[in-house]
């Protein structure tokens, strides 16, 4: 029996046009002149090949995250910061993806939890006109990139469901450039937008669509949740947002010192890893200003009773200021409650510190959402 090579496949053309072919190059040149391949260059510099047959979604996310310079939560291979398939294991079990693939809804969840600013569009709740407008917008800049989830057989290609980023658009021919992450199989190619929409709108047990990913707005960054071990931040978020309100409600605290003692003496042991990470990375000008402003707050002056290093007390103070007002509702003494509200008020904080606190408050909320999404990923 003759051995059949599985090295690449012949790209069905039509409907596809290979980017490297003469006609594909001409389409690219025309699209370049029209300004609708602006995102191509950063994506191309970050091109990846999926490492497993079912990892097309993770490879697409890796490619887009690297193109957007979204910093990964840890070093890759212990040496440098670079996204690859395996970096998403914090938010989705890789063995489950390997066995069942990654449904579009979960891919959106993983992208958000990993630190991307994500807009998701489901084909059954969108339209081809919406899709075309989004394609034109994404391909006209390099600040946002699109990932599509589509049905390969609709494009006359082998396989079933697949993900890949979009690298360009040719308005005259109404064609999109797919940067296929299964590079061992098919090269980058142009495909009619109407046909891709049909492939995205094909339901065979799963709902498909497209997502637009951009980088989250930069804020004061003393505490960057996505640059330290995810589990450490999650331990602290769970403690502050779940345990602290319950502990306060079941206690009989009578003054501010008892409230603070109850909270700060029970911080998770993983908090030490966060402190170590902050100390190792050093501080820039804005971060030094934030820390100086922390030391000037009334709350920090109360934290002096904590037998810890200054940086430990500074970071704990920022965490405590980030807690939402409802945290304290369990305090039974009305006078003490009003004193706590006054002490933890953000109204009189300096602008830079207030921005840092609001940023952290949003990140803690997002951590809890991501934890829920991760649990759903495990249980679905």
Automatic annotation (TrEMBL):
GO biological process, one term: cellular detoxification of cadmium ion
Presence of the UniProt keyword Nucleus in the record: no
EC code(s) of this entry: 2.3.2.15
Keywords, sorted A to Z: Acyltransferase, Cadmium, Metal-binding, Transferase
Peptidase C83 domain residues: 1-221
Top enzyme category: transferase
Name under which the protein is recorded: glutathione gamma-glutamylcysteinyltransferase
